[in-house]
Amino acid sequence: MVQKERRVQVTFWPEGDRVRVPFETTILDAAKIAGVDLASSCGGDGLCGKCRVIVRQGNVTAQPTSLLSREEIRRGYVLGCQTKVTGDVEVEIPPESRAEAAQILIDVDAQRFRALHPMAGEIEVHPAPLTRKLYLKLPRPSLDDSLSDKSRLFREIRRQRSAPIMQLGLKVLRSLPKLLREADWKVTVTLGWRGGTLEVLQVEPGNAPGRNLGVAVDVGTSTVVAHLLDLDTNERIDAEAVYNSQRVWGEEVTRRIIHAGTAAGLDELQNAVVSNINGLIAAMVQRNKVALSNITAVVCAGNTTMTHLLLGLDPSAIRKTPYIPVSASTSPFRAIEVGIQINPRGLLYTVPCVGGWWGAT
Fold first, then answer.
1. pTM
2. Which of 23, 14, 100, 107 is nearest to 58 (CA)?
3. Which residue, of 11, 152, 257, 355, has the greatest Cβ tally within 10 A?
4. DSSP code at position 262
């Protein structure tokens, strides 16, 4: 007979968040599971002392540490990463051990994107969106004009856009015969640049009125900042920011590289930042009442390690001489391949990095 795993309840104050975790889970790990923001620069090695909390009541076992004074220990302070719960516990997270409200980030970190909206007269900008929508009226096929459906579509696109190399996916190709004829050969195509190739991302019947939106994301070590953009007008619609959830495994990149080398570490780090990005996009979509399917492109910039973790690339060689990344630049991917939730055919672009310790510029 399999013995049932013993679990205990941890309550975090002042919010009152509760979570049940396995016996002898550390308070820091319990905070991760509960989604409680508890600072930890060293990634749980007991070196930084930032994850200090107060045990109000309950049973714990704590490792000795020189990072707490006798007075703090007398008042119930422990290090979250060095303290295991051995019974139901109530824990208070003091202000110095938690991050400030994420909304404050927008006014500070969002300044990194000011280049998207230069002051009038300072810089001349010629917008060239990575994706765009185009309304087409295709000539009907005839004995004198018997091009295939795909070639007919490509020909009409080339009449309006310079595109030596074009492609479309199998899913779009399969939809063409019925869609073109039911739409009376009047369609709206969404086009995306993949290097020197112009891809037909989707084909919609008629003059589809939906907006063509994109998201620019700064994947910072401490924060993730996203801006919602109208790709047709170059207008910035909204901005949102949040602390990077990877911080629970360390506030600096070397700790995260080390964690990425553990059994599930790379998946945990990648899922954390993708969840941050999806949360930011969802908040802006809901607030501005736009359709998620209208977001056809996401552009992410960050240092080399952050870009690797976003894409799920092994960053281990970056911290070892001669500091070699898996790739300094990548071709556009489907955003859904990474887990970013936008239009299913939407593209993810990453800004090229310079080297192992020199990120996107």
1. 0.71
2. 23
3. 257
4. S
